[in-house]
Amino acid sequence: MSALVTLGTKPQFELNINVSLTVGLTSQEISETIMNLLTYVGFPRILNALKIVKRVYQERYGFYNSKCNQPYSF
């Protein structure tokens, strides 16, 4: 995941996020991993990566709750 954010490979990163969610990572763990890269890769790449995470979450679950970084549950 870190290498894909660093290289800025959006399609591969999106696939990696989907696989990560499938194997059990939470959105918080994914977001924390990305945020830890801030000092190494810069703010623009982090913003792009977080936008991809949000889009993947919206596609998978239909809703995205930005306050708690988890999908809405009904």
Automatic annotation (TrEMBL):
<protein>
    <submittedName>
        <fullName>Carboxymuconolactone decarboxylase family protein</fullName>
    </submittedName>
</protein>
<feature type="domain" description="Carboxymuconolactone decarboxylase-like">
    <location>
        <begin position="2"/>
        <end position="54"/>
    </location>
</feature>
<dbReference type="InterPro" id="IPR029032">
    <property type="entry name" value="AhpD-like"/>
</dbReference>
<dbReference type="InterPro" id="IPR003779">
    <property type="entry name" value="CMD-like"/>
</dbReference>
<dbReference type="InterPro" id="IPR052512">
    <property type="entry name" value="4CMD/NDH-1_regulator"/>
</dbReference>
<dbReference type="Pfam" id="PF02627">
    <property type="entry name" value="CMD"/>
</dbReference>
